[in-house]
């Protein structure tokens, strides 16, 4: 018998066993977050027709390896969910090519491995990373997996706030703004004891970044009603912060809703608030100010009697960033429940740099949380969360600063939503020697659940939002509530409640959003 034939016959059992294995890899679109111990890069599934095959080594190729500190494979067997209970091999330093050596016994059927990474603390927020499994060594031979999601390059972001950071159970409802000095300001709910909304022990927190979001200072509590009237903090909660910056004076305003008493209720539900202005019966509209770029803040001012129509059940800030019009007018989006318990959106307006404020008539009903932009013709567009089963955004326009309103041509038919807060923002930028402007809109791009956290772009003042310009940030399930703001002339920042942390920050180059315009 010829030597080559003898060798082939000897290898036949191994080749047969290897043919009974198949492998695929899949990546989800989601950011790699600084501060997170674990960031899933990819899932590897090995399908075995027979049990007892041993996986001995996995070779991985990395793009953007310099942004990562270390990598670790985990074996979850038939379980398709990510788990760190069982490692495969050692944790290794990040390099362009990495070989994990370990032992994992396969069972018949699908067997899943997860590649996780830890980002460097100084990882570039404009960087991206990608992982690919080149080969798998098993006791039955060598496998080369099929990549089901090629070219999924993961962005670098920051886990701004996580479960139990600074002893706080849950962080929610962020609003992002940029100060007159270019400082990024993120305000949000600090839900101290549990994830529950008002009424609960909730304060308003603040994070500041003076380097474009790359690093953030220590958390500061800027609104805390403490034990007002001798009642415990869990019945003195503040929530839903809105923020606006006056670029002419540098003054920063933060608004929030405060509940006193009324344990077990919520201001948006029946019994949670009442008509009138009385503390303890009606939810209160609070305001604080900063004159030093957000370093220190005034004591809370109760604006309820000045701004709330006494017939309304509720009047509250929209948890978003307000805008400043071309003539210097400050415009803060707001929402509430009227005397007939209809939910509405409208505006809070100041023409004198925050010395006095007026409240506009209602823009539309069956909607609440909202954000405004000034259009090229100086009219205002208000984009609102819809509270019925329509699953499309409510969009209204005013040409007289909110005295009268008309539905926009995209009203309840242009932008989908799962009933969640969204963010609308105008971004002006230079393209060569030309100044251009686009509208950006962020929300969970779904009509079923708060998944597919995305940014969309409109080049025609909100009439259309081309699908090819939708940027998917995180396909996983989160709470949504995105907020957009300018970082600098070339970047937009976003804070949102994503799948990897309570509050996530990412910085996006404007060129990437408007590419192939």
Written description of the protein model:
By secondary structure, the chain is mostly beta strands. Among the domains are: 18-156, Immunoglobulin-like (Sandwich); 170-321, 6 Propeller (Neuraminidase), CATH 2.120.10.10. 5% of the residues lie in helices and 47% in strands. It contains 3 helices and 37 strands. It has helices at 3-19, 304-307, 510-514; strands at residues 21-26, 32-34, 39-48, 54-63, 68-77, 87-93, 97-105, 109-119, 128-138, 141-143, 146-147, 154-161, 170-178, 184-191, 202-209, 220-223, 238-245, 252-258, 284-290, 301-302, 314-317, 323-324, 330-337, 343-350, 358-359, 364-365, 367-374, 380-386, 394-398, 406-407, 423-431, 434-444, 453-458, 471-474, 480-488, 491-497, 503-509. The strands form 7 sheets. Strands 2, 4, 7, 9, 10, 12, 35, 36 and 37 form a 9-stranded mixed sheet that branches. A 6-stranded mixed sheet has the order 6-5-8-3-1-11. The longest helix is centred in the first third of the chain and has 17 residues, at 3-19. It is globular, with a radius of gyration of 26 Å. The N and C termini lie far apart (68 Å).
């Amino acid at each position: 018998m010829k030597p080559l034939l003898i060798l082939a016959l000897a290898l036949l059992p191994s080749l047969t066993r290897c043919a009974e294995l198949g492998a695929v890899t899949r990546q989800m679109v989601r950011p790699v977050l600084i501060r997170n111990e674990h960031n899933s890069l990819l899932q590897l599934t090995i399908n075995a027709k027979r049990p007892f095959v041993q996986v001995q080594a996995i070779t991985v190729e990395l793009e953007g390896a310099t942004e990562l500190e270390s990598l670790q494979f985990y074996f979850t067997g038939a379980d398709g969910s990510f788990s760190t209970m069982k490692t495969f091999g050692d944790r290794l330093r990040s390099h362009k090519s990495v070989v994990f050596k370990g032992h994992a016994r396969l069972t018949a059927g699908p067997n899943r491995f997860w590649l996780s990474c830890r980002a460097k603390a100084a990882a570039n927020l404009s960087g991206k990373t990608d992982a690919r499994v080149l080969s798998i060594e098993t006791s039955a031979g060598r496998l080369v997996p099929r990549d089901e999601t090629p070219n999924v390059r993961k962005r670098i972001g920051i886990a701004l706030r996580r479960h139990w950071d600074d002893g706080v159970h849950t962080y929610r409802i962020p609003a992002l703004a940029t100060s007159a000095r270019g400082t990024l300001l993120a305000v949000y709910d600090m839900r101290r004891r549990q994830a529950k909304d008002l009424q609960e022990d909730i304060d308003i927190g603040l994070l500041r970044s003076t380097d474009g979001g790359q690093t953030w200072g220590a958390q500061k509590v800027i609104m805390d009603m403490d034990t007002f009237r001798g009642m415990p903090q869990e019945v003195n909660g503040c929530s839903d912060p809105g923020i606006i910056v006056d670029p002419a004076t540098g003054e920063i305003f933060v608004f929030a809703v405060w509940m006193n008493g009324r344990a077990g209720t919520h201001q948006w539900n029946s019994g949670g608030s009442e008509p009138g202005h009385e503390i303890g019966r009606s939810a209160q509209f609070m305001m604080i100010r900063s004159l030093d770029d957000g370093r220190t803040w005034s004591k809370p001012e109760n604006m309820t009697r000045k701004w709330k129509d006494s017939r309304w059940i509720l009047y509250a800030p929209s948890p978003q960033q307000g805008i400043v019009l071309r003539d210097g007018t400050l415009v803060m989006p707001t929402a509430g429940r009227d005397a007939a318990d209809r939910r509405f959106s409208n505006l809070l307006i100041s023409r004198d740099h925050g010395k006095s404020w007026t409240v506009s008539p209602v823009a539309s009903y069956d909607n609440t949380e909202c954000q405004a932009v000034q259009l090229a013709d100086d009219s205002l567009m208000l984009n609102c969360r819809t509270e019925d089963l329509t699953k499309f955004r409510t969009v209204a326009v005013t040409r007289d600063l909110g005295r009268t309103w008309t539905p926009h041509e995209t009203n309840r038919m242009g932008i989908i939503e799962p009933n969640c807060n969204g963010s609308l923002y105008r971004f002006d930028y230079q393209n060569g020697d030309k100044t251009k402007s686009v509208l950006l809109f962020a929300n969970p791009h779904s009509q079923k659940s708060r998944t597919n956290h995305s940014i969309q772009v409109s080049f025609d003042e909100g009439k259309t939002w081309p699908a090819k310009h939708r940027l998917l940030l995180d396909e996983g399930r989160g709470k949504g509530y995105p907020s957009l703001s300018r970082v600098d002339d070339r970047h937009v920042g976003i804070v949102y409640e994503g799948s990897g942390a309570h509050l996530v920050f990412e910085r996006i180059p404007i060129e990437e959003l408007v590419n192939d315009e």
